Amino acid sequence: MITCPSCGHVHYLNSKVSASALVIERDRYLVVLRAREPERGKWDLPGGFCEYGESPDETARRETEEESGYAIEIVQLLGAWPDEYLEPDGSLWPTINLIYQARRAEGSTSTGNVNRSEVDDVRWAHIDNPPDDMAFPSQQSGALRQLAARNL
To answer: What average pLDDT does the segment 74-84 reach?
Structure first.
């Protein structure tokens, strides 16, 4: 919380909301390689910040299609985890990351139309061999641990 000494206005440092999809298919799940900072060159679950008026599940669907070319169906909310997002200008934002279990929509194949300003590569990682270089701690300690423990 920051209070302006002149007018007394209080600015709360509230968390930004993001949503991601853990898209599972048999014994593998979808990951994307980040093409920009923060965490450029690391693997990530498809996802991003919620737009104004957009629900988190809508965000997870939209971002997954933008970043992988796959249409998805949400199965369930796995949970919400706190994290931080370091902007290239050095601004550090607290975040709350909602991660949804999802599956490819029936008949969906990747359109190949991937936002290359955000993603360098798309691949399916094996559940027993997740990438070592995942971008954000909320994924490493959150959804991927649940995946391993529950064998979703």
So the answer is: 91
